[in-house]
Structures are given as structure tokens and as C-alpha cells.
Amino acid sequence: MKRLDLPLTIDKRLLYCIYFAFAILAFLTIALFVFQVMHGDDYVRLATENRLRVIRLSPQRGTIFDANQIPLAVSISTFSIQGYPLSMQSEETIQRIASFLGKHGIVKRPEDLKETLKSQYTVPYRSVTLVNNLTLAQMATIVADPEFPQELVPVSQWRRVYPAGEVMAHVVGYVGSINKEELKRYGSRGYQGGDEIGKSGVEAKFEHLLRGNFGGEAIEVDARGRLVRKLDFKPSEPGKDVVLTLDLIAQQKVSELMKGKKGGVIVMDVQRGDVVVLYSSPSYDPNPLAWGLRDFEWRALTKDLSYPMMNRVIGGLYSPASTFKIVAAIAGLAEGVITPKTTFYCPGYLEVGNRKFRCVRPHGREDIVGALRDSCNVFFFQLGLKLGVDVLSDWAYRLGFGRPTGISLPGEATGNLAGRKWKKDTFGESWYLGDTANYVIGQGFLLVTPIQLARAYAAVANGGFLPRPRLIEAEGLDGEEISIDDKVLSVIRKGLEEVVKSGTGRAAGAYGVKVAGKTGTAQTSRGKNDALFVGYAPADSPKYVIVVLLEEGESGGRAVAPLAGEILAYLLKERGE
Fold it and tell me: Membrane-spanning regions, if any (predicted)?
């Protein structure tokens, strides 16, 4: 058969173009394969040959400052020893490394090293941290040893230090090694075993700002672990600084006054909500926690029955006792149940049902100002029964009780406003008049936090604004207006001034500053009474609100009012405000 030679037509030229395009595509595919897949294989090969080292570079954590730019949490440079899982597979290698570390005073049993490798393992060529917190002198001695194992590498790292120690522990918090639960929760954010993470306080709340971003360096080494070439490098990015509203010097003063006592103190700007002092006693030193406690030390700390790690100011739940009487006073006046001239007779007790509810002493006839001044229970029993628990709890909620204040710290408690539904759900019982009698004087089922009390009294002092406690300077001002006639608040303020002028809180006014406030003595199941003072100063132009609570302090007037007065005087005089 004769072959036909077709002329070169446009269709044939198009076909050649298509062939050429496919050739170009095939070439590009091969190039991509060579430059990506084959280079990837090189990395795998280097890892398999134990010649690839990927070192994770930790960032410098942001500094936490007080309001005067005094550092409260800083990062210092230390050293760690890291190792590579692929290089440490054999029992002989593990034993050799354990012996080498032991020679330099670092006790790491072979089983400890195995557990560390297992817990931090991601890929064979990525280093894991075997030893932390070495000084430059220690590291120099270890690296200079001719027997330094080629499976190990020295790495500079940042570690946390808290210069203020226990004075700021409950606010600043501490960092520690990430645990398995945290790794599951935050692993998607780039955390790995061996990383540090904020465990409490500001360190935990603002972890996302303080942490920074990790860097890394990939290198090729020879059979003896010596550098052959650098393959890649990415610098770490330091975390952002955080500035608090707290005053370290004032906090130190409060810590000295609270030495040997159990309780809490908070001082807050009545207008802005800036927290100037927030101290819980007893406290703890966060430095050992950040650098690593042994198991028995951690158990001793967490099982201490004085609960040094609990922030009593935001997480402690207490009966507010007579400091809660301002709720009934505001509700009674605002709801029109009483007027400033209304009086009730106090014979020293009030019979409710078949039970006598007692006052501290017979007061005779009292109006609202006198009842606040003398802390007359009988006046408030009668007012509370007229209002009823529903109205009382509604006004308590408006004043910030039974809900978080929104302070930028983890672990804030909500408190318990109790009430009819709560009692029915909890105990399967109805609410009785006797429950209301207890409720109105801040006892019974009612539980609040000290910071909630500070917020409520700030609203009384500033004219009805419930500020959100502000702990971080970068945070905006926030809060909510409470609809209360200023005539109502002026009556309450007059009563609180009388408390310090001639009533149960006279000791708070002994420091040359005009203070207004309320004492409280709360019965507890522990046998001894808790003692409180809540107030503000100067009384005629309020700047600061304060809450001082002493567990088992017995008397708000005798034990706590003097502390509150001294602290307020210090802030207003020493700081020139």
C-alpha cells in the first residue's frame, strides 16, 4: 500500500503545539518533583542517616510591669540540653547519656530519659529537651567535657523569674511545663511537649500576648555531631509586654499588714475601676513553680490547709454579713418601702415564726442612717421582710452580686444569690421568712466575693456606675449604669459616713483621712467569725474603694477597720492623692 504524505496543514501544526505544551508541562512537573519531593527526600535521608538536626528556638516571653513600670515577671537567659529521638534508640545510648549527665551532677535515670523522649516526641530529627535551667558556667563545663555525647546539643533558652515573689503571685501567676491535657487543648496553636505555658493569673489570661512565636534552625552534622552546614533558620519573635494597673509599692505595704493573717484586700479606683491593690493571704512564691518543683513539694503546696494558692479576693466565697445591708437600704428607699424618716423599734431581737433573731444590743428607735451606723439587725430584719427575698435578690444582682465582675484573671467565682428557686432545686424545700431574715443581714445561703463587694460600694461612692474592675492598662474603661436616684445614694453615703464617725467602724477614721464604710462580722461553720470592712475615701470626694476581709478575724470593727483606714491613708497621703 502506498503511503500518503499529507501536506503540513494548520491542524497538524496545532497538534505539534499541543505535543510541545505537554512536553513543557512534563518538564515543569519533573522540576517540581526534583526541587520539592527530592529535596524533601534529602531531609528524610539526612534524618535517617542521623545528620539532620532541627533545633526549636524559644521566644523571649513578654515582660509584665506594674503601673510604675516596675517589672513583675521577666525572662532571663539560661541553657538547656536537648537530644534527638532517632539518635537515642538503643539502651546502651540511653545508659551512656544518663551516666554522662550524672557525672556532672544531673540525676536523670534511663527510664526518666525514655519518658521524656516519649512525651515530647514529634518527628525523629526534631530535638527534645532533656535538661532545663543550666547556668552559663554549668553549660560551659558540660560542653567542654571530651565525652560530651554527639547525640546531645546545648541550646540557649528563656526562663521566667518573678522579682516580686509572693507579693504579686495571685495576680501575675506563673508559667510551667505544658501537660498532656493542655497539649491536647492547645496543640493546634503550635505548642509541643516541653514548652512552657501560663498556668495562672495574668500569665495564663494573656498567654496569647506574652508567649511570642517560636523560631527554629535546621542544620546538617557529620557522624561525630559536628556542624557541616546550615540548612534553614527562622528567628523567634518575642512576646508582647503587659502593663498592670497595680502599684507594687502599695501591694508590698498591704502584704506586710496582712502577714500572718488569712484573707484578702482589694483597692480599686471608684470611677475607672482601676485595681491598685489585689492581695490574697497567705500567698506563695511562684519562682520555684516556674523552675520546677519536685512531686513532694507540689503535693505539700496544694494540700496546705491554709490554701496559699487560692486567690481569695476573686475566688473566695464568703458571707458578706452586715456589709450587705446597703442592698436592703437601697432597695427599701428605691422601691418606696421606706423613706429616710422611717423608723423601726429595736428591743434587741425580732420574733419570726417560732424563732428569735437577735441584734447586737437593743437600739430603740432607728432610722436608716442610724441603722447603718449601729448595724442594727432588727431594723433590717423588718425592712427585709417587707421587701421580700425576690426584691432583695433582684437589687443584689443589679449591684453586681451573683455574677462575675469581668476582671481579667482566671478563676473568678460567681457567688450565690440563693433565693426561692435555688433553695427548691438544691434542698427541695420552700423559702421561709427566717431565710429572708438571714439573707437581709448577709448570712444564710448568700455568698459573695470580696471583689463583688468592692464593685457595689464603688457604685454607691460614684453615683450609680458599676465599674468593671480594670487590671490591664491597655483595657478600655467599662461598666454599667444602675438606675438609682442620687437622693437614695446620698442617704446611703450619709449612713456610711456615720459608721466611721461614731458607729462600728470608728477605727477606720483614725489615720487622718475621712473614710466612709461598713463593718461586717460573719458567722461561719469554722467556729470563729470572719471579719470585713468595705468602704471608700475621701468620704466627701471618693477616690478609692477598699475591701478588707480576715478569715476568723472575729470583729469587723476592731480587727479590720483599722487595716482599711491605714491602707487608705497610705494611698491618699504617701502617693499625694
Answer: 14-35
Main-chain phi, psi angles of 548, to 5 degrees: -120, 125
User: Any idea what the CATH number is for the domain that residue 555 is in?
Assistant: 3.40.710.10
The pLDDT of residue 293 is 72
b/e per residue 356-373 (b: at least 16 CB within 10 A): ebebeeebeebbbbbbbb
Burial class (CB in 10 A: 0-12, 13-18, 19+), 79: buried
CA pair distance 79, 159, nearest whole angstrom: 9
**Domain end among 211, 243, 275:** 243
* Torsion-angle region of 252 (φ positive above 0: left; ψ -120 to 50: alpha; else: beta): alpha
Q: Which are the catalytic amino acids?
A: 322
Of 214, 243, 272, the residue at which a domain comes to its end is 243
Segments forming the whole domain that contains residue 87 = 53-104+112-243
Tell the residue number behind the cell numbers 470626694, with chain if given: 541
Task: Please name the residue that has the C-alpha cell 513543557.
Answer: 24
Give the distance, in angstroms, between the CA of residue 281 and the centroid of all CA atoms in the same chain.
16
**From the CB of residue 41, how many other CB atoms can be counted at a distance below 10 Å?**
11
Model confidence band, residue 28 (pLDDT cutoffs 50, 70, 90):
very low
**In this structure, are 76 and 137 located in the same domain?**
yes
pLDDT at 10: 41
Report the alpha-carbon distance of residue 457 to residue 454 in Å, rounded: 5
Query: What is the structure's pLDDT at 23?
Result: 55
Average pLDDT over the chain reads 87
Asked whether residue 528 carries a pLDDT value surpassing 80, the answer given is yes
Report phi then psi at 345, rounded to 5.
Answer: -90, 135
Q: Which of 497, 498, 485 is nearest to 333 (CA)?
A: 485
Please state, in angstroms and rounded to a whole number, the distance separating the CA atoms of residues 454 and 446.
Answer: 17
Answer yes or no: do 140 and 59 share one domain: yes
